[in-house]
Amino acid sequence: xxxxxxxxxxxxxxxxxxxxxxAFVMVRQMPGDPAVLIANQGRESEAPPEMVExxxxxxxxxxxxxxxxxxxxxxxxxxxxLGYSTRTKRPVLTEIQSSLPVSLHLGxxxxxxxxxxxxxxxxxxxVTRNKILDICIQILAWINYSVPVFLLAVLLIWIFAVxxxxxxAIGHETGRHYVLPVAALSMHLSGWTTQVIRSSIREISxxxxxxxxxxxxxxxIRVILIHTLKPALLxxxxxxxxxxGNLVSGSFIIETIFxxxxxxxxxxxxxxxxxxxxxxxxxxxxGGIFALINILIDCLYLFLDPTTVEKLGRGQTS
Amino acid sequence: xxxxxxxxLILALIGLLLTGCSILVEEPTQAVVAExxxxxxxxVEPTEAPAAEPTADSEPSYAEEIVIGIGRDLYYGxxxxxxxxxxxxxxxxLLYPDENLNPQPYLAExxxxxxxxxxxxxxxREGITFHDGTSLTAEVAVDNxxxxxxxxxxxxxxxxxEVVDESTFTIYLTESTPALPDLLVYFQSAxxxxxxxxxxxxxxxxxxxxxxxxxxxxxxxxxxxxxxNENYWGEPPKVKRIIYRYIPDAITRxxxxxxxxxxAIADVGSIIPSQSEIIKNDENLxxxxxxxxxxxxxxxxxxxxxxxxxxxxxxxxxxIDRELIVNETxxxxxxxxxxxxTQLAEKWVNPEASxxxxxxxxxxxxxxxxxDERVQVTFVLHSGLANRWPYGEIAQIIQFELAxxxxxxxxxxxxxxxxxxxxxxxxxxxxxRPYTMSSGDPDDFMTYWARPExxxxxxxxxxxxxxxxxxxxxxxxxxxxxxxxxxxxxEIQAILIEQTPFTPIYxxxxxxxxxxxxxxxxxxxxxxxxxxxVYKLAx
Amino acid sequence: xxxxxxxxxxxxxLAVILFxxxxxxxxxxxxxNAINFAEKFSQPNQIHPLGTDELGRDLFTRMLFGGxxxxxxxxxxxxxxxxxxxxxxAISAYLxxxxxxxxxRIVDILMIFPALLFALLLVSILxxxxxxxxxALALVRWPGYARILRGQIYSLLxxxxxxxxxxxxxxxxxxxxxxxxPNTTMLIITLFGLSFASSILSxxxxxxxxxxxxxxxxEWGAMINAARPLLQNHPYLMLFPGLAIIVTILxxxxxLRWLEPH
Lengths: 318, 539, 262
Hints:
Chain A is mainly α. Chain A has 14 helices and no strands.
């Protein structure tokens, strides 16, 4: 068991290495001369050519791709240094450290609220024999899911911040500041998770042996929790974990609209500014999170699905 | 059969939810909303009066803090020589322009030049100190000017600078430079203390200026905090603390003002013109407008067909209804581009050199070039610019107008880096950009737009070249007699309007707004807010 | 029974919407890009059933033409990503062994790549426009679907009755035809439906960033974005395209539920 986990961790590290190479190459294919863009940041006038050349040499844009990558990798492995942001001249690590907690808090709380909403609803829709109730919950879930986030956000701000003046629109200083962004995000997400939970549960609760258990007179709570929910937990957890990964990577739209300095906004700003070191730093972080989540999912399979080991032998899971 | 992992998972989920709930009821770590001087500790029934003695004095109580919402980050740190934008009045300059764009003394008390204007001597105001306690001396001033010149080369004819005494220095030029004071206004003569440059390893370097406000704090991508400089050499500001809150989304920026979370919005391009309607309908907000030095230009790729043809360019210029554009896209908050350079440069504007609107003539000209054929052109927009100004709508209007001429316009909106690249590679026919004539001197403009080696001509492949113009520009820049100079620039403008390598669409009128409890906040022509006079009445 | 009624109704409504967007000329006389300042910001009235926008263009017409772009691109995106995923998963499962291993690893690596970053890099590298957006998003999404499909194919392959069939001498092709394809098809259709919904939303999210359809073309997501600053004075400009998205996604999924076998 442990061997498998260690193997997965090593594999994850290898994956990280591969995507760092891919990203490294891709960002340098973006149109525009990064030296020019960096030299002209924040200036009203255009930078003189000597300055552009100086910047080009300073950041190593004039060297070969392999050379550039080697230097970047060396710095990370031997000095633990992610480099400096070209956009702000501060260490990439500082940039990530100041924006990461913001996105994390938002992501985790949204995740929690989403679960609070969608678990009971999804469970209910999955086990109920009242078709109308099931369909109503489904429709509600689809409507929640399909409202574009930026539409919802601007509506919420208009109603609660501008009109009623009960909730703040910008910033993340107090708990009240979390209400609107979390509401906007979790509405969309809960629509989806409600559906996922409902599907998995419904698939099992329709199985003959569940009907049988009901017929036998077992207490229905026991039936639901142990015989229905448990087997469904695997696919549900898998889906939820992937969503969690997306959440903690930061939502650019929410962070822009509510003026939160999170990592989603940092990523997009860095791409627009051709801030390669920061892009690569964020990539390592986000890629790392996803790799970790993949490992977690695989562990889940190992623990919850007894046939997994067998399937591993036959090469049917990775 | 119970899997321990299953139990752990349930516990983890519960833990997650609890953490979430606890954070939701967390105590506030920082108050952002402006507070009145009365603190929360007052156990007494909250009153409107300040905690000080309740006399019959009708002196209004001022709020300590004002929050201004903006759409761009104004702290630069190590990425720019100035470290922070001039609007925040942390640093000041030797010279600053007045409403007529004439350079006025600021930190420099006076100046005079020699006969042929090749040597200018400046005298500094006495007794001015930086925020770190050091004094503003001639030596420090020269260091600053040289540092700026290294980075921005505002003085193309610079020979050398010499310190004369404690508060006097002289600038020597290689040729006669009548407009030297204009070239030194604002950013070009910013004064920072020497220790500002000693902050190599510091993540957030402090700009030590002489201004009415001290730089206190910067939270990346969120806010800049300024505090009143109690030792300011001039009239001290009324407000104790100013917070610049960075709000990237224009809609939220206004909504935060409406909800009372910010007190004002005062920067160029921070209000979308269509929002003026909303502000006017809101009884708690006041709306202001000011003419600024920015002009929005449409420019052509003069190097490749079809716009290598002057007649066709003239046709396009004639087909554009600039008044319509101003009325419909900026809701009247703009000046139709009837002069080549900003109308604020009254000294230099040639009223005869004015683009006209005549759609019949335009069609005739176009037909004389194209005949019955239609031609396809690409109009490339910079998405960042299009977010701050209604370039998208303007492009669609122009597209509509040019269709009549037989020109089919395809609009491409691309992000900044791509835009620069496309322009450098000749991959466009038309584009637009704003230009601010910040020095008030037309040579600035000419250097960018009209000289063939000018940056816009080469970098943006506008590829405009005309020997006559070049000669005129050279003559104008060193002409000592003002009247002759004006005549030269007048002629240049006339030729440029005739040849239309680029054309003005409209001159910017910047909107700014504030709560009705905020007073004395005005923006000048270079969008610098009057932070030193603004105040807000406490609740 | 209820399920059938709802499903059929949804499908019918959806068909109407699709038809209207495919042949807008039958439903309106206006041009989607006809600027007319005299009529700008009209409230819904008799000549303009949904009102007009900031340039005086008829909103109903723009909704139809916009629907064509939104639905068309989303269908293309959903089809593209599911198709690539299906082919990949099928080949991977069919070849088995080291090839399967390699192809699965590639999918895993792609899934670790942050989606937004990947999409933004791709759209920036490709030339601006809807086509690049669809290509970029398809390339970002297919690995997720491929993983699900491969899992399904393998679990089918390992089903007991297949081993029994094999033992009875059935040939591989026969197995594929009879057992794998029908069961996987259902999953592919479901994935396609889900993908269609999330495609519409992805496309509109990226238009928030400024990518996607170019001016002056109409597209529901872009229309919502352009109407955001006008929300407080002219809310209908934002609400109608928003409703269109919600309704389309809802109807699509209700119809698909109906198609699902019980």
